[in-house]
Amino acid sequence: xxxxxxxxxxxxxxxxxxxxxxxxxxxxxxxxxxxxxxxxxxxxxxxxxxxxxxxxxxxxxxxxxxxxxxxxxxxxxxxxxxxxxxxxxxxxxxxxxxxxxxxxxxxxxxxxxxxxxxxxxxxxxxxxxxxxxxxxxxxxxxxxxxxxxxxxxxxxxxxxxxxxxxxxxxxxxxxxxxxxxxxxxxxxxxxxxxxxxxxxxxxxxxxxxxxxxxxxxxxxxxxxxxxxxxxxxxxxxxxxxxxxxxxxxxxxxxxxxxxxxxxxxxxxxxxxxxxxxxxxxxxxxxxxxxxxx
Amino acid sequence: xxxxxxxxxxxxxxxxxxxxxxxxxxxxxxxxxxxxxxxxxxxxxxxxxxxxxxxxxxxxxxxxxxxxxxxxxxxxxxxxxxxxxxxxxxxxxxxxxxxxxxxxxxxxxxxxxxxxxxxxxxxxxxxxxxxxxxxxxxxxxxxxxxxxxxxxxxxxxxxxxxxxxxxxxxxxxxxxxxxxxxxxxxxxxxxxxxxxxxxxxxxxxxxxxxxxxxxxxxxxxxxxxxxxxxxxxxxxxxxxxxxxxxxxxxxxxxxxxxxxxxxxxxxxxxxxxxxxxxxxxxxxxxxxxxxxx
Lengths: 293, 293
Fold this sequence. Notes:
2 copies of one chain form a homodimer. Chain A is mostly helical. Chain A has a single domain (3-290), classed as Orthogonal Bundle (Farnesyl Diphosphate Synthase). Chain A is built from 15 helices and 2 strands. The first copy, chain A, has a two-stranded antiparallel sheet. In chain A, strand 1 (94-95) and strand 2 (98-99) form a beta hairpin.
């Protein structure tokens, strides 16, 4: 299957699963579900679940088994965006071309919808029961998810983003490794673990995801300077406005493009061991390199 | 062991475990740990972990095994208090006799510390490994925790608290069943599940916890009207100020005291099956009935 078709089909599948995991219930807390669904079901790139699926497909093809984990990663990502956009944090009004969650539902509901989406990520995996997945394997994947999203992972990265005044590239990369890198790495690790990867293969995929995560962030920084707001679906030059260190402000545009290419190459090189089986992950890396938003 | 001694020893044990699960790390995100520890290690009643331990002790005595779950429940409780106190929610400045988390650490850090504590609850249980606990049992207990703290449990209750204008006792009890009841029920269920309870026994303990949770809430409403702020460690008459329906505003003080006694009796009656083994849970119910804060 060609990459575009693979991505379209899997994105559709992910969206349909997310929709099922989070039905609009006719309960007293219906507005909570509306708020959760507003952010979760918006038109995101679904990079994390796609990476989980592609990593799993290195080994097996029945993606039904990997879906709850792939969707849990997207729920954690969605909750982090809701909370990051809050007035007390980045105070952003636009996200994926739409008003941010707190603009539509108010600050209290946005905080609760974020909390509920993090919680729902764990519920989704815990409520999924299939005899093909051993309980030990499920626990191992949950541990990867929980540690990637916690205080030594994504949340820790947001703390650094908010409170540390960075000066150097190594400080900048520390933030990105935690804030976006940890979850991207766990996306690949979880898919491969469910597929049955060896220890050595997990290490290679971790290398791949680590470089991919950094490349992803450099591309974000470049787009923040070069894209227009309509294309990007969120405010441009936001890093500059918020006085945040970026690859572009640190290295300039040309050097950032070079580093983006270098990290993408390194990511792709980590896949050599897998031969043609690694093509899908390779294609994802190149798609992220070329993306316009 | 007499009840006072049991409670003192176990509270000490819980606090020492919480302290170990959440060390003050020397990392870039050190202020996050300070903020998390500030709320988690403050002088709470530790009701939820004590219920988990007492429910487990119906069956077994080596509480080491139940500790990570008991502490996870306290982490979920602590995170919910931090987020409930936020300016966008109840906007409270005092909690357990100290300034609330956002007053000390600012709103952004308080949101992140809450997120991190919820995440940490799952991490704590997932990182605990002991051959005496079967993976299936661990998953079952995590499922109880996740569903009690989620959109159909505690978070759902906070949504009702914030957004539903209640008029009747049944609406009031719907809120309490979700907001405080669900977590209290899961505290007992998790302890008993780890101990090896039968289905029938789990049902009895669920009844016990359900009545206990409602009694707990009535007592809270009564104390909000009758205690002084110094004793209570948080603002008094806060429900009246926030125009929230309470048992006292709905039924009056005397009728609320009657209902408190009735629910406590029903809770205690649910324990009859356990005979003298149920004494500890019985004592907890009476302690909550008599408490001054």
